[in-house]
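lol ok so funny story. i was supposed to be doing the assay writeup but got distracted and ended up predicting the structure for this chain instead. priorities right. anyway since i did it might as well share w the group, maybe its usefull for someone
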Amino acid sequence: MSPLLLFNSSFGLKLSISQVVEEIIRFMKTEPERRYCITIGSDSEVLSSGRADFVTAIVIHRVGNGGRYFWRRFQFGKFHTLRDRVIEEVLASLEIAEKTLRELKRFPGMVFDFEIHVDIGEGGPTKSLIQEVVAMIRAYNFKVKTKPGSYAASNVADRHV
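and the output, tada:
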């Protein structure tokens, strides 16, 4: 399996998407009466070499009572514009979202919300990208959140960039 598709756990383990989903299901089954939200988010930063360091996070949030997350890091080529880098973050999140949902379908009866979080907002240089990025994610039929509500990208993935 490609190391790009392995996610880190809080216990230092390297997990495949299937294993991440099994951990998510195990977490949800400990308190099945609770409400859950699974979120995918990516963040990136440009390195001194000009390449970009990307992190994608999968978060399982037990609404009102904590959660767990899993993350992967990878480097990508040089980006000439902020827009190109943000679009690559979105594409990384969409890829993982589709793979995660495919695995979650192996566990019928599990109830959860599912969102993609994007590290863009009204208050910064990414303001002009909001409409384009939100439309792109909605075209894949996913719910989307931007700052300040996009914790999977803005807080969790950002912590590991």
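The chain has one domain: 3-160. The longest strand covers residues 51-62.
back to the writeup now i swear
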